[in-house]
Amino acid sequence: MRTIAMIGTGYVGLVNGTCLAHIGHSVQCCDTNADKIEWLQQGRIPIYEPGLEAMVAENVAAGRLSFTSDMASAIEQSDLLFIAVGTPMAPTGAADLGYIQSVAEFIGRHLTAYKTIVIKSTVPVGTGRMVDSWIRANMQNPQIPFDVVSNPEFLREGSAVADFMKMERCIVGAIRPEAAQLVADCFEPLNTKTYFTTPESAEMIKYAANAFLATKISFINAIANLCERYGADVEDVAEGIGSDSRIGSAFLRAGIGYGGSCFPKDTHALNWMADQAGYNFGLLKEVIQTNEEQKYVLLKKLVQALGDLRGTTIAVLGLSFKPNTDDLRDAPSLALIPALIAAGASVRVYDPVAMSEARKWFGSDVNYGIGVYQTIAGCDACLILTEWREFITLDLEQVRQLLKRPIVVDGRNCYSLASMSGHGIEYHSIGRTAVSAEQTVLSRL
Ligand SMILES: NC(=O)C1=CN([C@@H]2O[C@H](COP(=O)(O)OP(=O)(O)OC[C@H]3O[C@@H](n4cnc5c(N)ncnc54)[C@H](O)[C@@H]3O)[C@@H](O)[C@H]2O)C=CC1
Ligand SMILES: O=C(O)[C@H]1O[C@H](OP(=O)(O)OP(=O)(O)OC[C@H]2O[C@@H](n3ccc(=O)[nH]c3=O)[C@H](O)[C@@H]2O)[C@H](O)[C@@H](O)[C@@H]1O
């Protein structure tokens, strides 16, 4: 059992802190956001993450997990200091290391005995060494030893607790093998495969993993756009290629592009790193560009179906960047909804859990519905942006009756073409428009 200070109690810090407590460690989660800490001390969870609330309560009750704004004493009382603060995108596309630097300097000022400092945040290659120097520059007693270890995080929002508890692999990048082993031992109860490497490789593994997954998504979205032009069905194509074990079926769901707090910023940060090194990562630039364009494909489909959008009311189902989270950071909805409004439409939105988050982003620009059916009633068309369970099990008969015009434009391919047409709904989805051979490029060949 180790004593751990988790510095930064956001999606990653709160889940890691709670799960590390759950596997037996004694964890203090700290944050500069005093409101967040106060909420957590009252047993309230500031984010929506399945399974997290119960796990927090259990570990707080067991005395293994606590929340504090007193970072200095948490640091003093802990063997390992995990840094899990944000690394948002700077205007240049680079990762903004401001929060990391301020934590490193704080640690430096409060270091009174040996500590292992673990970087959980996603940081550009070389950051571990910068953290080392920021700590050193602020130490009152430069003789105190410490290690900086890179231990990137791979959890997904919406399944974060399960991703941690069934961790597929643990990456540990360190200069001193003893420090690497200390960090690996923290995760020992999970029985996961650990890969030991240098800090630079560990930092690169994180960006390469996210960029590769983003590449798969942009690739299948580009194929989807081609499928529409040739009358093929991207769902069949994804299944057909995904069954090749060298390709794999994961991350081949065509849609309206990837969003969230990580793929967009991490692809930009990797591209920035490449540019800094004088390497033109053209492939990655295309992945980013394809994703940008994909966010607007539903607008084009809607205009094709309805014509002029001025004076129309459009229902939007799903605002979060994926199901099972209330996170709207870089969600496709943030790009598409302003575009609908700019085209003259009134927008009525509904999301099962992200409504209060949505109010922060959209304010009074949209109307907020109550439940699916109240939201779509009387609308000219309905868009599906997130594949929440509630939206993939709609009562299609009611949908047809409630919409002014029975048009559904689905950015997540939640339904078969047959089920929608069977209910008399004009259905537009991604990469599988039901066109006859005469309407496709084939007819012109
Ligand atoms: N959200 C995700 O699913 C994943 C995120 N990551 C990476 O983990 C890092 C954290 O991401 P999130 O948890 O999503 O961010 P977040 O924004 O949800 O949380 C960061 C927290 O750090 C706190 N903070 C900022 N400065 C601080 C300081 N000086 N001292 C103490 N606390 C401070 C903030 O108040 C905030 O509560 C990022 O680098 C991200 O790229 C990695 C894998 C998954
Ligand atoms: O670094 C991070 O923060 C995390 O980023 C992603 O996790 P997350 O963003 O939570 O969610 P994903 O499930 O990866 O989905 C990201 C986006 O891609 C989209 N997506 C995903 C898969 C797919 O086949 N198609 C597709 O469009 C989703 O709708 C969503 O908008 C990675 O999957 C995690 O491994 C990583 O730790």
TrEMBL record:
The active site is at 262 (nucleophile). It is an enzyme of class 1 (oxidoreductase). NAD(+) binds at residues 31, 36, 87, 122, 157, 265, 329. GO terms for biological process: polysaccharide biosynthetic process; UDP-glucuronate biosynthetic process. Its EC number is 1.1.1.22. Pathway: Nucleotide-sugar biosynthesis; UDP-alpha-D-glucuronate biosynthesis; UDP-alpha-D-glucuronate from UDP-alpha-D-glucose: step 1/1. The keyword Oxidoreductase applies. It catalyses: UDP-alpha-D-glucose + 2 NAD(+) + H2O = UDP-alpha-D-glucuronate + 2 NADH + 3 H(+). Keywords: NAD, Oxidoreductase. The keyword Transit peptide does not apply. Substrate binds at residues 154-157, 206, 251-255, 259, 322. One of its GO terms (molecular function) is UDP-glucose 6-dehydrogenase activity. Residues 315-417 form the UDP-glucose/GDP-mannose dehydrogenase C-terminal domain. It holds the Pfam family UDPG_MGDP_dh_N. NCBIfam families: NDP-sugDHase. Belongs to the UDP-glucose/GDP-mannose dehydrogenase family. Catalyzes the conversion of UDP-glucose into UDP-glucuronate, one of the precursors of teichuronic acid. This is UDP-glucose 6-dehydrogenase.
